[in-house]
Design a protein that fits this description.
110 residues; mainly alpha; 3 helices
């Protein structure tokens, strides 16, 4: 709390938001490090995408359990694996940014 910018309510709120997102990113990377506003925005986008992918994986897993045709189960499991791979890539990007190995502005393509 002592290191937060408390100039006004907006900067205080932004500082809290940046720290919370950095904490969530630290859960994936294993190291907590305060972030700049641009990095916080890109991390937030990646964390949101990870959450969406995880919910999609859950839906696909439920469909695969209910599916009786083997070829459709294989297709669903293949899609699940692709989504898991995308999650791992996003986690690697967060960790990469966490440790400063990459200085690109936005890792997410529109």
């Amino acid at each position: 709390y002592a290191n937060l910018d408390k100039t006004n309510l907006k900067t205080c709120y932004d500082s809290y938001t940046q720290r919370i997102i950095a904490l969530q990113a630290a859960e994936l990377s294993g190291k907590f490090e305060p972030r700049t506003r641009a990095r916080t925005q890109s991390d937030m986008e990646m964390l949101e995408r990870i959450g969406i992918l995880q919910s999609e994986i859950q839906v696909l897993q439920n469909q695969a359990r209910k599916e009786s045709q083997l070829n459709l189960r294989v297709a669903l499991n293949t899609e699940i694996q692709l989504k898991r791979k995308e999650i791992e890539q996003l986690k690697a990007l967060i960790a990469e940014y966490q440790y400063g190995k990459n200085n690109r502005q936005s890792p997410i393509e529109p």
